[in-house]
Amino acid sequence: MHDPPRILAVDDTPENLEILRMRLEVNGYEVVTAADGEEGLAKARDLKPDLILLDIMMPKLDGISAVRLLKKDISLRSIPVILVTAKADTRDVVEGLDAGGDDYLTKPFEHKALLARVRSMLRQKALHDTVEAQARSLQDQAAQLAAWNQSLEQKVAEQVTEIERMARLRRYLPAQVADLIVAAGNGDALLQSHRREVTVVFCDLRGFTAFAETAEPEEVMTVLGEYHSCLGEQITRHGGTLERFVGDGIVVIFNDPLPCAGHTERAVSMAVAMRDAIDEHSERWRKRGYLLGFGIGIARGHATIGKIGFDQRSDYAVIGTVPNHAARLCEEARPRQILVSQRVFGAVEPLVESSPVGDLTLKGFHRPMPAYEIVRWLGPS
Fold first, then answer.
1. In this model, does residue 182 exceed pLDDT 90?
2. Of 82, 314, 319, 359, which has the most beta carbons under 10 Å away?
3. InterPro entries annotated for this entry (predicted)?
4. CA dist list (Å): 230 to 233, 238, 247, 281, 381
5. Which conformational region is residue 100 in: left (phi greater than 0), alpha (psi within -120 to 50 degrees), or beta?
6. CA 98, 104, 108: angle at the middle one, nearest 5?
7. Phi, psi of 256 (to 5 degrees)
8. DSSP code of residue 248
């Protein structure tokens, strides 16, 4: 609805148009006039009035033909039409109403009847506009809700995909590496080779090779499962990065890919916790006839870390003297023994009960290397 309401009066008699214009304008309506059906139809399309007063008897295009064209036009059919005719033309009134007219007036106009019909038709138009606006609003809300649902479904699908991707990555990569790959969105950049000081823990089972040669495959895999589960809990608790499994051997890194303060202290604390946790399993294994011990070697220093492999398969790996040093110390360790390098011992000496082992001749090293045994973790005083 326009404000004030816009009324189009169509009549080929100028006097009638002037009467309509004066009577309606004095009551606050905006009035537009047209002298024949064609002009009235054109102005209706152009101005979109709220009500049309349409004379039936006109040249060029009569009122009945005009109302038919109005009601066929989807943009105009909601505009109410009051047909104007002489009293004697009842057949025209019937035909005009059948063609789509909404009401009629007879000439000469009776002022109150004119205003009453105009107000009635404008109320209908206002009601129609309200219903149409509400329908549009509902359509917009439905479209918005559909868009929200689609967006929500897409987000849920993306999150599910991300969770599945994370689960796959966590199965085949260290958890910290998987988390960083997902967060960064660019695993290749994250895994570029770099140098960093790290603490490396190497541990394995004593007597495992002989056990694997004589035990059934199911027994071997059961023991490995118990062993890995036990150590995995300690690795996670202490914030270590599981670098790889080597049969019964496990390599754990501290201070990469996430830097962490006190990485050597964490590594030694984890090693002691591992040894104590494996003690319980060792007793159960002994009762089942499996003679298995557990040894650990720990070294600290700068290493090269990054991605190794080829297109179809690659691993995150630590390379250099430090992991080799840890592995050789592990080889020298007796069951339940934790051997550490000089640099590791220097970092944790106030926090542990220890004893010197002396200089060890380790495979791959040109000179004897001092080593220390960690007897017990004391922690900060």
1. no
2. 82
3. A/G_cyclase, Adenylyl/Guanylyl_Cyclase_3/4, CheY-like_superfamily, Nucleotide_cyclase, Sig_transdc_resp-reg_receiver
4. 6, 13, 15, 9, 28
5. left
6. 140
7. -160, 140
8. T
> Which 8-state DSSP code applies to residue 289?
T
Alpha-carbon span 232 to 238, nearest angstrom: 10
Pick left, alpha or beta for residue 344 (phi over 0 → left; psi -120 to 50 → alpha; otherwise beta): alpha
Structure-block tokens of residue 249: 């051997």
- Where do the H-state alpha helices sit in the chain? 14-25, 37-47, 63-72, 90-99, 111-172, 175-184, 187-190, 208-214, 217-238, 263-287, 321-332, 342-348
Q: Whole-angstrom Cα distance, residue 175 to residue 135?
A: 53
- Only one residue has tokens 């506009």, namely 129
Cβ–Cβ under 8 Å, residues 186 and 195: no
Kindly report the pTM of this predicted structure: 0.57
> 292-338, pLDDT tens digit by residue?
999 999 999 999 988 888 877 777 889 999 999 999 999 999 999 99
DSSP 32-82: EEESSHHHHHHHHHHH--SEEEEESS-SSS-HHHHHHHHHHSTTTTTS-EE
Q: Which two tokens stand for residue 103?
A: 């009401």
